[in-house]
Amino acid sequence: MSSAMATRLSDLFGNSRIIAGLLVNLLSSICIVFINKWIYVHYGFPNMTMTLIHFVVTWLGLYICQKMDIFSPKSLRPSKIILLALSFCGFVVFTNLSLQSNTIGTYQLAKAMTTPVIIVIQTMYYRKTFSTKIKLTLVPITLGVILNSYYDVRFNLLGMIFATLGVFVTSLYQVWVGAKQHELQVNSMQLLYYQAPMSSAFLLVLVPFFEPLSGEGGIFGPWSFQALVMVLLSGVIAFLVNLSIYWIIGNTSPVTYNMFGHFKFCITLLGGYVLFQDPLSLNQGLGILCTLIGILAYTHFKLAEQEEGKSRLAQRP
C-alpha cells in the first residue's frame, strides 16, 4: 500500500462523521442487493414497477432534504436533463434485471466492467487520455469477469445480456452525470432532485407495456403485506444508498468512495454465497481474485496520479 493511500485511510478513520457516513453507505449498499434479490426470489415482484417505487421514494426523500435545508434546489430546463433521466431509468432497470437473472457473484463482477467501459467512452468520445498503467489494470478486471462468467454453473444468457446492457448504460450515465454537473454548475443532489421525478414519469408510461398492472405479478395484484413492506423498505434503502454516495464523495473524494467500494464488493460476494447458496468453483474464485487485483491496482495508480497532480500544482510559482 502506498504512503498516500495509508495517510488517506488514517485521516478518514480519524473523523467520526466520515466513519458514520461510510457505515451508512456500507450497510445500505449491501442491504439493497440482498433485499432486492430476496424480493425477486421469494415474491417475484415486477422489476420496472419496483424501480419506479425506488425513484418516487428517492424524490420524496430529496424533497424532505431540501425542506430541511440539506441542499438548495436549482431550476433546470427539462430539455437539458432528458437524456440523463432516460439513462438513469435504463441503468437501474437493467442492473436490477441482471440481479434478478444472475447469481450475486456474476451480478457483482459484471458491475466491475463499468470502469473499463467508462475509460473506453471517455477515450473515444471525450478525447480523454489515460496512462499505460491505468489501461493495463483493465486487463485483469476484464479477464476476471470473463473467467467467472464462463465457469458460472448457473450461467444465464439472458442474464448476461441484461448485465452487459446494465454496464453500458451505467457507464454512459456516470460519464453524463459528470459532464452535466460541470455544464449546469449543479451538485449531484440538485441534479438528482430534478432527474428522479422525470425518470419516474418515463417509467410510469413504460410499465403498462412491459408488466401487468393487475392479477398475478402486477402492481395491483394480490401481494402480501410482507411483500409490500419489503418493497417499500427497499425503496428507502435505495434512497439512503444515493444520499450516502453523494455525501461521501462530497466530503472525501470519488477515489475514497471507490476504495471503500472494494470492501463492499467482497462482502456482497461473500453474502451471495452464504445467503443464497450460490455455487462457487475454483475457476470462479480465480476470476474474482483476478478482478479484485485489477480494481485495487486501478485505484492505487489513480490515487498516485492525483497526488502527483496536486504536488505539481503546489510547486507552480
Automatic annotation (TrEMBL):
- Organism of derivation: Culter alburnus
Q: Which PANTHER family match?
A: SOLUTE CARRIER FAMILY 35 (PTHR11132)
Q: Name one GO cellular component term.
A: membrane
What is this protein's name? Sugar phosphate transporter domain-containing protein
Protein's UniProt keywords contain Glycoprotein: no
Where does this chain mainly localize? membrane
Q: Which keywords does UniProt give here?
A: Membrane, Transmembrane, Transmembrane helix
Q: Where in the cell is it found?
A: Membrane
SUPFAM superfamilies associated with the record = Multidrug resistance efflux transporter EmrE
What this chain does, per the entry, is described as: Putative transporter.
Query: Which Pfam family is an annotated match for this chain, by its short name?
Result: TPT
TM helices/strands, residue ranges? 18-39, 45-65, 81-99, 157-179, 191-210, 225-249, 256-276, 282-301
Parts forming coiled coils: none
Span of domain Sugar phosphate transporter: 27-298
Does the UniProt entry include the keyword Nucleus? no
Q: Give the record's family classification.
A: Belongs to the TPT transporter family. SLC35E subfamily.
Q: What membrane topology term does the record carry? A: Multi-pass membrane protein
